[in-house]
Amino acid sequence: VITAILFGIIEPQMHVFFEHVIEDSLNDYSSLIHLFFQFLLIGIIKQGLEYLLDILVGYFSIRFVQDVRKDVYQHLSKLSFDFFIKKEKGQIISRFINDIDKTKEVIENTFFSISYIVTIMTTFYLVSTRHYKFALIFFTIIPLMVISIRIISSEVILSGKKIQEQVAKYTMLL
């Protein structure tokens, strides 16, 4: 989480930092070389944080999937035969595979969402302190984006449920 927050803060800061530094150092060759190395260092730090975030998210999501699958297997092995007779086999297998994978995706996307939210907040702060008109535009665009995302996501969730039911039917046939 800390890596995601740091990554979200550094990315918009780079643009503002270099906007000021480039304007100040255009006439001085040594300042321009110094700027180049600063840009290189910040780029390396940014890419390093992004790589670290990818590694950590992958590690934690895989560990989560391993733990959940072990728990589900232990739970399923304790169930009676009546449960397996009454339930469709494809539905059990589909739940075991697809639900756990979808949960893994949610965990992975949560960390990246934290980074994106912090990036948006930092960008908003930087822009609004420089130009109040941009802040007003920001406040009109973001609610429209949130509303459209909610509408689209509800449709995607319904489609996902229908697809999972179909996968369960096909898995049962196999």
The helix-and-strand class reads: mainly alpha
Main sheet properties: none
Strand fraction equals under 5%
Spell out the helices and strands N to C: HHHHH
Uncertain stretches: none
Helical segment tally? Answer: 5
Any idea what the shape is? Answer: elongated
Mean pLDDT equals 76
Rg is: 24 Å
Cα distance spanning the termini: 41 Å
What is the share of helical residues? Answer: over 70%
Number of strands: 0
Descriptive terms for the model:
elongated, mainly alpha, 174 residues
Question: What would your notes on this structure say?
Answer:
The protein is mainly alpha-helical and 174 residues long. It has 5 helices and no strands. Helix 1 (2-25) packs antiparallel against helix 2, helix 1 (2-25) runs parallel beside helix 4 and helix 2 (29-78) runs antiparallel to helix 4 (89-130). The longest helix is centred in the first third of the chain and has 50 residues, at 29-78.
SSE map:
Layout: H1 2-25, H2 29-78, H3 81-86, H4 89-130, H5 132-173
Helix pairs in contact: 1-2, 1-4, 2-4, 4-5
Write a brief structural summary:
The chain has 174 residues and is mainly alpha-helical. The chain contains five helices and no strands. Helix 1 packs parallel to helix 4 (89-130) and helix 4 (89-130) runs antiparallel to helix 5 (132-173).
